[in-house]
Write a structure and sequence with these properties.
By secondary structure, the protein is an all-alpha fold. It has ten helices and no strands. Helix 1 crosses helix 2, helix 2 crosses helix 3 and helix 9 runs antiparallel to helix 10.
Length: 203
């Protein structure tokens, strides 16, 4: 009976190898040969899934971004399972808190993002992977901000979509600080909480 090959698992293993090498030696240390050795596969297997180093690296970064998004969804789901369907403010905070690298995996993913930022300067496709400018995310967050203000009985102030954009910028910057060891997760959360109080206001 022929062996069933899990192609998605193989691609994930290759991405994990790219992450490990990038965090160890920087993006310039990633080669197809090194990725094959790190993943424990042949060069032929690497080239079967990715025709070039650039394609392999972009896929690995794309998967890292997807993993960060999955962490946001998991944070909201965990709150819902523990306390029931969360309100707008709880959802807003959990979405943003997920960027603060509160555990080892979060730190690893954010460090990887920082490591590949330089590449995005000369690679528009990479820049699109790292910062896709997701209008749907901003619209969703703006809705949470408006809902959280309503929950508090606070008056609408300014453009919630601009506030949403600023919130993500603040949360991402704080997460990078944590990943680089410039702030503790608790200190970053304190700054983010202060910003959210200013954004949401009081009734």
């Amino acid at each position: 009976m022929p062996k069933v090959v899990d192609h998605e698992d193989r691609k994930r293993r290759l991405a994990e190898a790219v992450w490990a090498l990038t965090l160890q030696d920087g993006l310039e240390g990633v080669t197809l040969r090194k990725v094959a050795a790190e993943a424990g596969v042949s060069m032929g297997q690497v080239q079967h899934y990715h025709a070039s180093r650039e394609e392999l690296v972009r896929d690995a970064v794309r998967r890292a971004v997807a993993a960060l998004n999955a962490r946001i969804e998991a944070s909201i789901k965990a709150v819902a399972e523990e306390d029931g369907p969360p309100g707008a403010e709880v959802m807003l905070r959990e979405c943003l808190y997920a960027m603060l690298a509160r555990d080892e995996e979060g730190v690893r993913l954010l460090r990887l993002s920082v490591a590949v930022l330089g590449r995005a300067i000369s690679d528009p496709e990479m820049a699109g992977v790292l910062g896709p400018g997701d209008g749907e995310l901003l619209d969703f967050t703006a809705g949470l901000i408006a809902g959280a203000r309503a929950e508090r009985g606070a008056k609408a102030a300014g453009d919630p979509r601009i506030d949403a954009d600023i919130c993500w910028t603040v949360a991402t910057g704080l997460g990078v600080d944590v990943a680089l060891g410039m702030r503790t997760p608790a200190a970053a959360k304190g700054v983010l909480d202060h910003h959210l109080e200013c954004v949401l206001g009081r009734g």
